[in-house]
Every structure is written in structure tokens, then in C-alpha cells.
Design a protein that fits this description.
Elements lengths: L8 H17 L11 H8 L10 H12 L11 E2 L8 H13 L10 H18 L6 E5 L2 H19 L4 H4 L8 E5 L4 H9 L6 E3 L9 H9 L5 E6 L11 H10 L3 E5 L24 E5 L11 E5 L2 H8 L29 H35 L5 E2 L7 E5 L3 H14 L3 E7 L2 E7 L7 H25 L1
Parallel strand pairs: 1-11, 3-4, 3-5, 5-6, 6-7
Antiparallel strand pairs: 2-8, 7-8, 9-10, 10-12, 11-12
Length: 468
């Protein structure tokens, strides 16, 4: 086979055509997929062909078969899990990343993508008011961003106890105690599992899910060895922020590492609106966030920040004879994340921030929160609807009275397809959980969402009346 640039033209033109059709459909199409997975699986259930196929025809077949099973996550009416849409500059940059086909691991080998990611990292530290000397790594998502921060913390606290985890592993090491709020996110639990640290000791939280400093102080007083403290910037159900300065001070006074899980909420630090709520955030040791959430770049793009750049390189740095290092001695991108080989996922972050600028990033974050408050106000005006959380950021948790009624309204809403909101359980109660994460959500989308909930509520109420 011979490389011919012209061979890419027809399939890329097909891809652009179908991408445009998809994007054009988002403002009006139902959010839920039109076909279930078994129907899609049947459509794709074909034997592997014996002969090659025309690449343009393959792209057309793929787009046509997949379309009924696509969820409109990029729609301004998607409020399910915390998933943002994709900003135009970020999507376009992501296409370039695939076309460039750069392995983003070594500065010497792929200097352009390394330089772009380094600048994106510097912009993030500046925007979020984190220590300027921190190391920034681009991971697959929030789970691995937590993994990176906690791995650096594990090495640091064990090192302080005289144990080299890189050399000796965990067998026979001092036990590392992990303290986390009772509403810790599952991504943290997974990261701890991957690190061999087991489950955390859970610390009491207030009714909004914020870890209680008095309970944290009591838990720390019972710890006798190495310790990691995990805090939240953005509770999954309430959006609330842990009291950072007090909790981080307590952790440091006890010799513990303070890590902040800020999958979506860390971006609140870009706006002065949350300066008080996040006071002291910059004093932590590591932070994790997801750029595909609040910043609205394509998957996959977690961001791990570690204040001690040497600590993260100690956890993930690896060298061998065939790695060509840059003479400058700066950290290679592969020394900041678990992967040696990876796509240059920080490039769309650069593009998103370059297109938004500082004021645009602040407006994006504040706009999401404004829409969450508007949704909460509209829903609270409906009969029998109770907003359970203080709407401090982008999350809204709603009850329709009983758990059974809440579950049925949630299902009716999903079946309607106009919007997507997910069910959950918070503080022992079934809730409709709303996450406002899409840059394109506007007042019209909010109005459609409130009306869709009203219709779902009416459907359930009518069914209950007819059944009596």
C-alpha cells in the first residue's frame, strides 16, 4: 500500500458532511436515542468482509447505521450526567489532533503539541488561581486525574514515613489512611482502588454534602500514619464546595496530603463569584478536573494538577534508552500521566481557552450557574415540586414528593425525549438530578426543560388518578 494524500479527501469530505448534519440537528432533535442498543447491535452484526472497501463508503455506512443510536449529548437540552457539549474551536482542534497523529509523550519528538499543552496548562493555573509552579497533566478523564493526584500524594506521604513505594511497592509499607467526605464521588473510590489503598474512612458532611471540619479534625486525630485527605469542589447532587481553607489547614497540620476532586466544580475558581466559597483552594497539594465537563472540550480530557512537580514526576516518570529527551530538562508530558503513548488531548483545551479568553471562560462558567438557578426557579414553581439543594453552582436536585412518584416522573421525562435529566438517590431520597454543563444552553432551552418536566408530572398525575 502506498501513502497518497488524495486518498483522504473523499472520506474526510464525507465525515464533514455527516458531522454538519449531526450538528445541524441538535437544536431540534429529541435528546434520547431513537433506537435501543440491541437494534444497533443487529444493524452492525455483519461478518468481517473478505475484501477492502472504499473509505468514503465506510464513513457513510458508519454514520448512517449509528445515527439512530446517538444521544444528543451536545444539545442545550441535555441535563443528565455532568457532560458538556463541545465548543466549535475545541471540536475543530480535536480533528486536527487526529489528522496530525502526534504521540504526545515526548517534548523532543513532538515539540508542537508539547508546547501547546504546556501553554494550556499555564493558562489553567492562571485562570483557576493555582500555584504557578504546579505540574499539569492531561489524562483520559476525571477518574485518572484523581488517580494522578492521589498517586503523587501516596508517594509523598509514604516517603515522609521513610518508605519508597516506587522501589519497594506497597507490601509491608505503612498503611495509608484516606479520609473523604461521606458523599465522596465514585471516581475517587476507583482511583483509590487502582492505587491499592482500599476504601476511605468516611467523614460526616452537612446536609448539602460539604465535609464538616469538626468531623475531619476528629478523624485526623485518630490517624497515626501516612494520610491523604480528599475534598470536593462541586458536590455531585448539590454542587456545594467543601470549606477549603479550614480543611486543608487541618490536613497539613496533621502532615496529610490534601487532594481536591473538582471534576466540574474546580472551574468555579475562574470567577470571582465563588472566591469566598473556594477560599484556600490554592493551598491544597493536588487537584483534579474534567475539561469535557465545564470547559466543553471533546472526550477524553481530564486534567491533573500537582503543586509539587517533582512529586508527580516521581510517580509517573520513566526513562529508557530509546526515549529521546529534550535538552532543557523539563518534564515530558508522559511523566505527568499514566500513559507513555497518548493523543495530544491538551490541544483542544488550548483551542477552547484561546477562543474564550479570560472573560469568555468566566462568562461560560457563570452562565451555566445562572441557567441552573433559572431551572430551579422554574421547577420550584410547579405544584408538588421541591428543590432539595441550595443551588450554588450547576447542580439541581428535585423531588416530586414520594420516591415512587419521583422515579415515575423521571422515567416519563426521559420517555418524552425533549430533554434528558437523570434519576439518582441523595440522602436516602430518590431525586431528579439536573446538571447544567453545556455552553449552548440558553433561556429557550431552560423554558423547554421546565415545560417538559411539567408535562411528565402531568402524565404521572393523570395515570395515578386513572388508576384510583
Amino acid at each position: 500500500m502506498t501513502f497518497r494524500p488524495e486518498d483522504y479527501r473523499a472520506p474526510l469530505e464525507q465525515a464533514v458532511r455527516y458531522a454538519r448534519e449531526w450538528l445541524d440537528s441538535l437544536p431540534s432533535r429529541p435528546v434520547k436515542p431513537a433506537a435501543p442498543v440491541d437494534q444497533l447491535a443487529a444493524a452492525f452484526a455483519r461478518p468481517l468482509p473478505e475484501e477492502p472497501a472504499d473509505p468514503a463508503a465506510v464513513v457513510a455506512e458508519l454514520a448512517t447505521l449509528a445515527e439512530p443510536g446517538l444521544m444528543a449529548i451536545g444539545s442545550g437540552r441535555f441535563f443528565g450526567w455532568v457532560m458538556g457539549g463541545t465548543l466549535p474551536a475545541a471540536l475543530s482542534a480535536d480533528w486536527l489532533v487526529s489528522a496530525w497523529d502526534q504521540n504526545g509523550g515526548l517534548r523532543y519528538a513532538t515539540p508542537a503539541t508539547a508546547a501547546i499543552e504546556e501553554r494550556a496548562g499555564a493558562w489553567i493555573l492562571d485562570l483557576l488561581h493555582l500555584p504557578a509552579a504546579s505540574a499539569v497533566g492531561f489524562t483520559t478523564g476525571g477518574t485518572m486525574a484523581n488517580f494522578v493526584g492521589l498517586a503523587a500524594g501516596r508517594g509523598a506521604v509514604l516517603g515522609a514515613a521513610g518508605w519508597d513505594v516506587n522501589r519497594d511497592g506497597l507490601t509491608g509499607s505503612p498503611r495509608v489512611t484516606v479520609l473523604a467526605g461521606v458523599e465522596v464521588h465514585i471516581s475517587v473510590l476507583l482511583a483509590l482502588r487502582y492505587l491499592g489503598l482500599g476504601g476511605p474512612t468516611l467523614v460526616a458532611a452537612d446536609p448539602q454534602g460539604r465535609i464538616r471540619p469538626d468531623a475531619l479534625a476528629e478523624a485526623l486525630s485518630a490517624v497515626t500514619g501516612p494520610c491523604l485527605v480528599v475534598l470536593q469542589a462541586g458536590n455531585l447532587h448539590s454542587g456545594a464546595f467543601d470549606p477549603m481553607r479550614e480543611c486543608i489547614r487541618l490536613a497539613h497540620d496533621a502532615g496529610a496530603w490534601a487532594h481536591v476532586d473538582g471534576a466540574f466544580g474546580l472551574w468555579a475558581a475562574a470567577s470571582p463569584r465563588w472566591a469566598s466559597a473556594l477560599d484556600g483552594l490554592d493551598t491544597a497539594d493536588s487537584w483534579a478536573t474534567d475539561a469535557h465537563k465545564t470547559l466543553n472540550v471533546p472526550y477524553d480530557c481530564g486534567i491533573a494538577v500537582v503543586a509539587d512537580a517533582a512529586g508527580i514526576r516521581s510517580a509517573f516518570g520513566a526513562q529508557t534508552s530509546y526515549f529521546v529527551q529534550d535538552d532543557a530538562g523539563a518534564a515530558d508530558p508522559m511523566e505527568l500521566v499514566p500513559e507513555l503513548s497518548r493523543r495530544a488531548r491538551g490541544v483542544p483545551v488550548w483551542a477552547a481557552l484561546r477562543s474564550l479568553g479570560r472573560s469568555g471562560t468566566v462568562s461560560l462558567v457563570e452562565g451555566l450557574a445562572d441557567n441552573a438557578r433559572a431551572l430551579a426557579a422554574g421547577l420550584a414553581a410547579l405544584p408538588g415540586v421541591e428543590v432539595l439543594n441550595d443551588v450554588v453552582f450547576t447542580q439541581v436536585s428535585v423531588s416530586f414528593g414520594t420516591d415512587d412518584r419521583t422515579v415515575r416522573v423521571t422515567q416519563a421525562l426521559i420517555d418524552g425525549g425533549a430533554v434528558w435529566m437523570s434519576g439518582s438517590v441523595w440522602s436516602g431520597r430518590a431525586v431528579l438530578r439536573i446538571s447544567v454543563s453545556n455552553w449552548s444552553t440558553d433561556a429557550a432551552d431552560v423554558a423547554v426543560a421546565v415545560d417538559a418536566v411539567a408535562q411528565a408530572l402531568a402524565t404521572v398525575t393523570t395515570a395515578a388518578t386513572d388508576g384510583e
